[in-house]
Design goal:
Oligomer: single chain
Number of helices: 8
Order of helices and strands: HHHHHHHH
Length: about 190
């Protein structure tokens, strides 16, 4: 069994968010949440993915920075990937993301850490794939709409965010934000 190296006294975690202390301890003590750092990210490859290859470590608006990373990576990868390739990447990224983000969230001892941005990346890839071809201005508006729905979480996004837990909950609310972004864009295109 492989274990992560200790990252210091404040970061010493046991089995997960519900247990702490020695195994023979009569009562488990609550585990303090761990802060996502570059050192933590580099302890496991799944953390690297969950934290958006470092974009989720931004001290200011990590979800927005993660979405920007998703946008930039889409621009780079779109030169090499077909629509079918993108579809496979997004579907695999979503379903693998359920386990990947759950693993990192458990290690951080937080239900849905803001530093986990893989959900934003995959969801924004979906938005960009569905609206392409589009002008740069259109991409900016897509970004603004997606961030609005992801941050404000109007109903029913808020409902899913509160009710669904674990990796599926982390991934799903951003998928719903992507859906509403695409719905607004489709309605705008019909009105113009």
């Amino acid at each position: 069994m492989q274990t992560e190296p200790s990252l210091g006294p404040a970061d010493d975690l046991s089995d997960g968010p519900l247990h702490g202390g020695p195994p023979d301890s009569p009562e488990p003590r609550p585990v303090r949440p761990r802060r996502a750092t570059a050192r933590f990210m580099l302890t496991h490859p799944l953390h690297l993915i969950s934290l958006g290859f470092g974009s989720g470590l931004s001290p200011i608006m990590p979800g927005t920075v993660g979405t920007l990373f998703g946008w930039a990576s889409f621009a780079v990868l779109n030169r090499y990937l077909t629509v079918l390739d993108w579809g496979v990447l997004i579907i695999v990224g979503f379903f693998a993301g359920i386990s990947i983000t759950a693993f990192t969230a458990k290690k951080l001892a937080i239900d849905d850490p803001s530093a986990i941005v893989w959900d934003e990346i995959v969801a924004f890839w979906l938005v960009l794939l569905m609206v392409t071809p589009i002008t740069f201005t259109g991409q900016v508006w897509s970004f603004i709409l997606f961030r609005f729905f992801d941050m404000v979480k109007p109903p029913p996004i808020r409902y899913f965010d509160r009710r669904l837990k674990g990796g599926f909950g982390i991934m799903f609310d951003d998928l719903v934000a992507a859906f509403f972004t695409l719905l607004v864009i489709a309605l705008w295109r019909m009105a113009v």
